[in-house]
Amino acid sequence: MKSIKPLHVITCLFIASLVGCADQKSSTTAYKTTEGVNIVGGKDSNYDEAAAASVVYISTENDQGHNEICTGTFISTELILTAAHCIAKEKEGMSLSFRPRDFIKTKRIIDIKITETYKLDFSTLLVERNDLGVIHFEGGLPEGAKIAILPKSNKNKVLPSRRLLAIGYGQNTGVKSDDEMANTGEGVLRTKTLVSELIKTDKDNFKIDQLANKGGICFGDSGGPALILDPVTKKNMIIGVASAVLTKRTGPDIDPNDDCKNQSMYLNMYYYAEYFNSFLKKAIESKAMEKKLALENKNLSN
Q1: Sequence-ordered list of residues with C-beta below 8 angstroms from that of 80, at least 6 positions apart, any chain
Q2: What distance in Å separates the CA atoms of residue 220 and residue 182, rounded to the nearest whole number?
Q3: Which of 154, 167, 223, 236 lies 20 to 30 Å (CA to CA) from residue 147?
Q4: pLDDT at 295
Q5: How many Cα atoms within 13 Å fall on the side-chain side of residue 33?
């Protein structure tokens, strides 16, 4: 595996280029809606859509060493945005692939080489969910792939609920399958139109009522984007990053056995926009220092 590029090079590349889990057996249970069979409650993606062309399939190892599926989004010609909990302890425990628009017909997969991974630490901001990660990859943007942009910082305190597009490689139901491997995600890219709750720009996350929306994100969709079409650039804009499904709410229509029919949490990119560049730079510098110290300790022990 190729080692990380020197710090000054990768930092410059980041500043110049930033804009703005393996296939598993499908679960046997699925919601039935007018949109078809899920992301939960969604439909299989049309690979001609720009939204699908911005999304990356991630196979990763969790802290217990088990394989899981995640989703990521191209934000530059060398950077992918995802959830921090999708970043394995070692980059060798991860693999990336881009599945172009003809994937359904040809099963063609483009592997992407990982150069380095970063967990961005926003804990000093006292965030509710510290879960943003970035992957640096080698080789440039794959053929057919498109970049999704990040929003600019929005100083309005409250934005109206947004109609957004959720997209990811996750399960199509939150009901556990007999096959434990199927519970990490399915590897089939699906989309679902969702309506968010009010988005507070001074808060690090926003919620989706998955019961009212008749679906939403599930396991395997982690790290995937909530997209809107930017009216100015006409490009897909990432306003949220899928981070968690929430199961605390109860009620007559809530299935206690279904982890994904309740509520979900997206990391709010309107909030993070103000801090993203500086915190990514800090993560790059921290990783470089880590490697330098490790090398020095190795030399000393020899």
Answers
A1: 56, 72, 73, 74, 96, 134, 135, 137
A2: 10
A3: 154
A4: 74
A5: 21
Task: Give residue 187's pLDDT.
Answer: 82
Residue type, 98: F
Q: Please give the pLDDT value at position 16.
A: 38
Residue with tokens 């009010």: 198
Q: Which DSSP string corresponds to 57-104?
A: EEEEE-TTS-EEEEEEEE-SSSEEEEEGGGS-SSGGGEEEEE--TTHH
Residue of 40, 42, 147, 169 whose CA lies nearest to 96: 169
Confirm if 110 and 103 have CB atoms less than 8 A apart. Answer: no
User: How does DSSP classify residue 147?
Assistant: P
Nearest to 249 by CA among 266, 237, 264, 235: 264
Compute mean pLDDT per 10 residues along the chain, 302 residues long, and list them: 33 39 29 42 60 92 87 97 96 90 65 96 96 96 93 89 92 79 78 93 95 91 95 93 88 80 94 96 92 74 70
**Cβ–Cβ contacts within 10 Å for residue 103, how many?**
19
One-letter amino acid at 192 equals K
